[in-house]
Write a structure and sequence with these properties.
Blueprint (H helix, E strand, L loop, with lengths): L23 E5 L7 H4 L8 E3 L2 E3 L1 E4 L2 E5 L15 H14 L7 E5 L6 H9 L8 E5 L3 H16 L4 E6 L4 E2 L6 E2 L8 H9 L3 E4 L4 H9 L3 H4 L4 H27 L1
Parallel strand pairs: 1-5, 1-6, 7-8, 8-11
Antiparallel strand pairs: 2-3, 4-5, 9-10
Subcellular location: Cytoplasm; Nucleus
InterPro entries: Mrp-like_CS, Mrp/NBP35_ATP-bd, P-loop_NTPase, YlxH/NBP35
Keywords: 4Fe-4S, ATP-binding, Cytoplasm, Iron, Iron-sulfur, Metal-binding, Nucleotide-binding
Length: 255
């Protein structure tokens, strides 16, 4: 998935306890597999239209969400669209959703380098995107795809904030031994980042509670505040914020 800037920067952290509260927009651009409504606990919600455009669905007062999932009659409905129809909806989401005054726009994109990614880069080119956060798992079959995504970012001149290695080891809650569920046979994300000269933002270990929280539409950070994965998430969030703040500062100096 990718992170894109509107107004100031990008952050996963908005609204969580102990953090400064920002107005955040979360745009689910995985048109064929919209999972954000389920993960945010918003399944079954619908989009309402007003004179100022589509109104997002709110998780909290400061967190609004828009997804094609809100436009489907059932979560099991398949979205079978060709490129032009996808591009039309992406443009509509970016142009016609009444987010109000927001600090951050987070866009969750599908894997790959297809219509959704090209359209987003094109339509948001004037917004000076902070950059993309690229997610991988440690095994080579995943890294192969991620190298293509990094190459895509370079070709379209999209800055890369960094790479996150997900499912990076598993610590047994009983015996505390660590296992490599997805062995990093070629060195994992760390080696890839060194070779390609991009930042490794952090590694998120496997925690079954993450999947449970997503299925229940609950905040994992609230449900498992002591988990090593929570600590990893917070460190990654801080690094993303620091990058975006620096990017914004540099833009102000240029202006």
């Amino acid at each position: 998935g990718g992170l894109w800037r509107q107004s100031r920067a990008v952050s996963f952290a908005a609204g969580w306890a102990g953090w400064v509260v920002f107005q955040v927009a979360l745009l689910d651009m995985d048109l064929c597999g919209p999972s954000i409504p389920k993960m945010m606990g918003l399944e079954g919600e619908q989009v309402h239209q007003s004179g100022s455009g589509w109104s997002p669905v709110y998780v909290e007062e400061n967190l609004g969400v828009m997804s094609v999932g809100f436009l489907l009659s059932s979560p099991d409905d398949a979205v079978i669209w060709r490129g032009p129809k996808k591009n039309g909806l992406i443009k509509q989401f970016l142009r016609d959703v009444d987010w109000g005054e927001i600090d951050y726009l987070i866009v969750d994109t599908p894997p790959g380098t297809s219509d959704e990614h090209l359209s987003l880069v094109q339509y948001l080119s004037a917004a000076h995107i902070d950059g993309a956060v690229i997610i991988t798992t440690p095994q080579e079959v995943s890294l192969q795809d991620v190298r293509k995504e990094i190459n895509f970012c370079h070709k379209v001149k999209l800055p890369i904030i960094g790479v996150v290695e997900n499912m990076s080891g598993f610590v047994c809650p009983k015996c505390k031994n660590e296992s490599q569920i997805f062995p990093p046979t070629t060195g994992g994300a760390e080696k890839m980042c060194q070779n390609l000269n991009v930042s490794l933002l952090g590694k998120v270990p496997l925690d079954p509670q993450i999947g449970k929280s997503c299925d229940k539409g609950q905040s994992f950070l609230s449900e498992a505040p002591e988990s090593p994965a929570t600590s990893s998430y917070r460190n990654i969030i801080q690094r993303i914020q620091e990058y975006c703040d620096q990017h914004h500062f540099q833009e102000e100096k240029i202006i």
